[in-house]
Specification:
By secondary structure, the chain is mostly helical. The chain contains twelve helices and no strands. Helix 2 packs antiparallel against helix 3.
Length: about 280
Amino acid sequence: MSARGVAVRVGLGRGWTEFRQRALDVGGLVGELWPWVIGAFALHALSGRTMGDTALDVGLQGIPGLLAVSVVYTGLLGLSLALVTDQSDGTLLRMKAVPNGTIGYLVGTVLGRAVLCVETALILLVLSAWLFEDVQVGRVVTWLFLPGVLVLGLLAILPLGVVVGAAFRSRASLGLVTLPVMGLLAISGVFYPLASLPRFLQWVGELFPVYWLGLGLRWALLPSQAVLAEVDGSWRHLEMVGVLGAWAVVGLVAAPVMLRRMARREPGSTVRPDAAGQG
């Protein structure tokens, strides 16, 4: 096996180890999941209210959006925070000292976050099926296409987490990303139809993967009449796959390059102040 293949295998093992440790850490797991559980109950409290002139239930419409937001926060913001933290405490530089260690580190870290995203999605699906009888978890089409939509969304979102994390040098500076991400969520139609926004905001929202991930999740989980609230009254399957696929390709090309630049940025003896303050 080549050196890169060994590094990938080590990274897969690292990701699996992180998953097992997280699964046994009840406190940490609760800390990761409680915002989404509370969000699901909050949406349930909105059940019975309809959205605008449609007959769509506000709470039900929000469930796929909550899933999409959990992927963005866990896969983009959570992953970028993990990278910045590992840069600050010297973990990334230690990985750099190992042949192809950066590859193994990247595979393990991304895999750990991907598993957490899937774990969160499964728990939310079970909870949503209990809270909302109209969530379409019993359809064959749901289980045929939902995994594909989620995987494609992860391929589009996770590399962005690597790129964002590699672009910043401290957790304080990374905080500057939170507000733009919240703004992006606001114009991506995750909790209300994108068609209700001004056309120029629709165009901006359609440029990014968050809207298309939410659209795919709504297609998989909501009743068929929910399509009436979408732009042009269509699920736009080809556009969904095309945009998410394009973001995945761009991210998968850019992420390793940005991570290598991040690893070269500082000498091995340097420990950043925010890491030193943890001691």
